[in-house]
Amino acid sequence: MSSKQRVVVGLSGGVDSAVSAWLLKQQGHEVIGIFMKNWEDDDDSEFCSSRQDFLDAASVADVIGIEIEHVNFAADYKDRVFAEFLREYQAGRTPNPDVLCNAEIKFKAFLDHAMRLGAEKIATGHYARVREVAGQFQLLKGLDPLKDQSYFLHRLNQAQLSKTMFPVGELPKTEVRRIAAEINLPNAKKKDSTGICFIGERPFREFLNRYLANEPGPIKDDRGRKLGEHVGLSFYTLGQRKGIGIGGVKEKGAPRGGGEHEPWFVARKDMATNTLYVVQGHDHPWLLQHTLVAEDLSWVAGTGPAEGSEGVGAKTRYRQADAPCAVTASSPEQISLHFPQAQWAVTPGQSAVLYQGDVCLGGGVINSAA
Question: Who contacts 176 (Cβ-Cβ below 8 Å, separation ≥6)?
C-alpha cells in the first residue's frame, strides 16, 4: 500500500479534528475536509452551534490549505439516531447517543460518502488508536487516559476500522492544543464541545418535553413511602442526585436510614406503576450491582471474549476505570457480566464496554442489573 493516500477528515469545527487534518497533510496525504450537519430542527437556536462550527471548520480548512465540503446527514441522523434515542427514553432507559452516532453516522453514512469521493481512508479527531495484527484490526484506547474515547467507538467493526485513522490518538490533549496554537489555527483555544448538537447546553428536561408525552407519578423511598411527585420517568436517570424535586424532605415520618441530611439518589424506575424510587446515601444497596445483562452486542473482532478469558474489564459508563469482571455468554445475543466489586448505578440503556488492557473488545447495551 502506498504511504500517501486520499483521506477524508470529519472536520467538526473543534481543535481535535483540525489538528488531525493538519497532521495528515504534514504526512503527505491528500486531505479533504467534510463538515457533517446532523441536526436541523432548531438550528438557529442559541443552543445548537452548528453554524458557528461550520465557520470554524471552514477557516481551519483555509489555514491548512485543504478543501472542505458541507454534507447534510440530518435525515439519516433523525431516522437512525434520534428516533432510537426517543424510543429508549420512552421505555424508561437512558441511551448514549454518541455511541449510536458513531456507529450509524460517522462510521457509516460519512464513511460511505467519503468512499464515493474516492477516499482510501477516513479520519476523525477521536482519542483512540487502530492497530493491525495479523490481518485483524484492533481498536485501542487513546494514549491520553483523560481523553480516551474508545468507549464511544466500541461498535465499530473490522470493515470500518480498516478504513479509519485517528491521528490524535497517540497524543495528549495538551500537545494537540500546543500544535494548534503553534500553527495559528483559528480555533486553537476553542472550548471542547459537551453534549450532542441536538441538545447542546440547553436544559435537558425542556428539550425532551417537546418530543415525549410524560405522565407524572409518585416518588417513593425504599420503604414504599411517598415523598413527592415526579414529572415523568423519562426525565430521570439512575444515580441522579440533582433535580429530583424532593429537596430536604424532613416532614414527620421521613425516612432516616441514610442519615437525615444524606442526599437523595434515583435508584429505580418502575414503568408498570409509573413510580420513581429514591434512596438516601451514595452507597445505598439499591445503587450497587454485582451483575448486569447486556444485549444488542457488537464485537470489534466479530466475536466476543471466550468465557473465562483472563484480564477482561468493563466500563458501565464513560468516565470510569475498567472494572475486572467475568463474562458469561447466555446466548449469541446476550452476555452477563459479574463484578467482584459492586458497580455504582448501572443504568439500562447505557453501554457496557469490554477491554483487555488497552484493547477495546466491543460491548452491548445494558438491559438489567442486579
Answer: 15, 16, 19, 168
List the Cα angle 116/121/124 in 5-degree steps.
105
Would you say 6 and 120 are in contact if contact means Cβ atoms under 8 Å apart? yes
- Domain assignment present for residue 362? The answer is yes
Structural domain boundaries, residue 263: 214-282
pLDDT tens column, 259-301: 567 899 999 999 999 999 999 999 999 999 999 999 999 999 9
DSSP E strands: which ranges in the chain? 6-10, 30-37, 67-72, 121-123, 128-133, 136-141, 164-165, 217-220, 226-230, 264-270, 275-280, 288-299, 312-315, 323-324, 326-331, 334-344, 351-356, 359-369
- Picking from 242, 261, 282, the residue at the C-terminal end of a domain is 282
Residue type, 101: C
Q: Are 128 and 153 in contact (CB under 8 A)?
A: yes
Q: How many domains does the chain have?
A: 3
Q: How far is CA 159 from CA 114, 120, 174, in A?
A: 14, 12, 31
Q: Tens of pLDDT along 22-59? A: 999 999 999 999 999 998 876 666 666 788 889 999 99
Instruction: Provide the CATH number for the domain around residue 301.
Output: 2.40.30.10
In a domain, 194, yes or no: no
Q: Which long-range contacts (CB under 8 A, 24 or more apart) does 212-219 make?
A: 212/86, 212/89, 212/90, 215/274, 217/273, 217/274, 217/275, 217/276, 218/274, 218/275, 218/276, 219/244, 219/245, 219/246, 219/275, 219/276, 219/277, 219/278
Asked whether residue 68 falls in the same domain as residue 88, the answer is: yes
Residue 69 sits in the same domain as residue 176: yes
Do 263 and 313 lie in a common domain? no
Same domain, 26 and 157: yes
Could you list the active site residues? 101, 197
